[in-house]
Design goal:
heterodimer, A: about 290 residues, alpha/beta, Glutathione S-transferase Yfyf (Class Pi), Chain A, domain 2, Rossmann fold, 4-stranded parallel β-sheet, 13 helices, B: about 190 residues, Fumarate Reductase Iron-sulfur Protein, Chain B, domain 2, 11 helices
């Protein structure tokens, strides 16, 4: 059995663009008797911008959160794949004594680098058989999309296979849904380029959506707010640009778990997506 | 650890030695198989593919390497690093090159990409957390793409996905100090 109490780092987007991820994650965990204690006064991990410009900054920002979790004496559960990746990288770098000394000085106070960081998918993995299915997702075909940051680099994130991960697939299957076999599980969606090179995001996200649609998926399940934003908010523009009807709802995996546990679409904030999943779910008798 | 000072032009091996020291990767291990370029999602948009970039470092072609669009279009997706048969962390090499280009104050060939990072970090430094609406508005103003994503931002606002006011966090002051300390150490 996995630990029942975690320190919880939502990350910036879960309080804004990905509120539905935060809300559904909390509902699901509470329903399964898992306590998430949000870090008090947490701040940004630096995302992709810190490590593009400064090594030291990219370690010091997440180290502040690691220190907070260390003080709580709990493993740290993370929802956002980007934050997860940055925290894992920081832990790896902080194994170096010299860097740890330098960073401890920067953030002030001692840093033992002894916190275990896990992603919410890992938190739910061990409980998947115990989920009480009030609304089994029978007949729902889901394309599980992991993106880059959860799985690579394998020796640092220590998560799952980097080319064909399974952890989300087995969770989705435990909900009585069908997870499709496909080749774009860990292909990049365009990451942090949507403002600066939107064309790249459209090209990459189009390929992912198109592939999932071709293989008969009813929706995509994701575990990263950045992937979600790139895949969900671009669909109108993609359809106009490529003249493909890619329309495919993109849901957080926690929303699918919540749906199976019997929470209502409203409780799970399914209305927050730009590509509305409700018509599809209604047709399947799931909403 | 930090880019201590700007390196000056000199023998052909200088760029390679600098990159090796900074990234911890052995550049001469690359035997030009091209697996990095084959898997790279943005190679199609780059002027030099990742394989060509690695060769450029081996040959000491500093201006070509630091002036490439490659270093800015890299998404840090790590596919190249994961698949390299010589176990070179190519994404790490690209990160080092980006940092070097910034330290040398070179004109980025994809200036909007760097602008995005700068605005993002500026907001973190100020508020402690990201604020997407400020990010979108400041980016449009400073990149002079005034109406870019305006429709999307509006839609996200009406969906309640964006907060109007920046977050208020106690830790913001601490983050400001953290930025200052890092900057002082990197000088």
């Amino acid at each position: 059995m996995a630990p029942r109490t975690y320190a919880y780092y939502p990350g910036c987007t879960l309080h804004s663009t990905a509120k539905e991820y935060d809300v559904s994650a909390r509902l699901v965990c509470e329903g399964l008797g898992i306590e998430l204690r949000e870090l008090e006064d947490w701040t940004c991990c630096g995302a992709s911008s810190a490590h593009s410009t400064s090594d030291l900054l990219s370690i010091a920002l997440p180290a502040r959160e690691l220190q907070a979790a260390e003080e709580m004496g709990l493993p740290l559960a993370v929802a956002c794949a980007m934050c997860f990746s940055r925290l894992k990288f920081a832990i790896h770098e902080l194994n170096d004594q010299e860097i740890r000394g330098l960073v401890s000085d920067i953030i002030g106070g001692e840093l033992r680098n002894a916190v275990e960081v896990v992603h919410l998918l890992q938190v739910l993995d061990e409980d998947r058989e115990a989920i009480l299915l009030k609304r089994p997702l029978t007949g729902l075909k889901v394309a599980c999309y992991y993106g880059c940051l959860l799985v690579r680099p394998r020796d640092i994130v220590d998560f799952d296979d980097e080319e064909n991960p399974q952890i989300m697939d087995r969770l989705i299957e435990a909900l009585a849904a069908h997870s499709i076999d496909w080749g774009f599980k860990t292909e990049c969606c365009g990451a942090s380029l949507p403002l600066s090179r939107k064309d790249v995001v459209l090209t990459l996200s189009h390929r992912i959506l198109y592939q999932a649609k071709q293989l008969g998926a009813d929706c995509l399940a994701v575990a990263c707010p950045m992937c979600h934003s790139n895949l969900d908010t671009t669909q109108r523009v993609i359809e106009a640009k490529y003249r493909d009807g890619v329309g495919l709802p993109v849901l957080y995996f926690t929303q699918l778990v919540g749906l199976a546990m019997g929470f209502s679409p409203k409780q799970l904030l399914l209305n927050k997506h730009l590509t509305d999943p409700l018509p599809m779910l209604t047709e399947k008798g799931l909403a | 650890m930090t880019i201590a000072s700007v390196i000056t032009p000199s023998p052909l091996s200088e760029l390679r030695t600098f990159v090796e020291n900074q990234s911890g990767q052995n550049i001469l291990e690359c035997y030009q198989c091209g697996k990095c370029s084959a898997g790279c999602p943005t190679a199609y948009a780059m002027d030099l593919t990742p394989r060509q970039l690695m060769r450029g470092i081996q040959l000491g072609l500093k201006d070509e390497v630091l002036g490439s669009t490659t270093i800015w279009l890299c998404l840090s997706c790590q596919t190249c690093s994961a698949r390299c048969p010589r176990q070179i962390d190519i994404a790490r090499v690209l990160e080092t090159l980006r940092q070097l280009a910034i330290a040398e104050k070179r004109n980025p060939t994809e200036k909007d990409v760097l602008l995005f990072h700068r605005i993002f970090l500026g907001l973190i430094q100020r508020y402690g957390r990201a604020h997407e609406l400020s990010l979108g508005v400041l980016y449009n103003l400073r990149s002079r793409h005034l109406l870019a994503n305006a429709a999307l931002l509006l839609k996200m606002l009406t969906k309640g996905k964006l907060s109007i006011l920046p977050p208020k966090v106690k830790g913001a002051a601490e983050v400001k100090r953290l930025f200052a300390k890092v900057r002082a150490l990197e000088k």
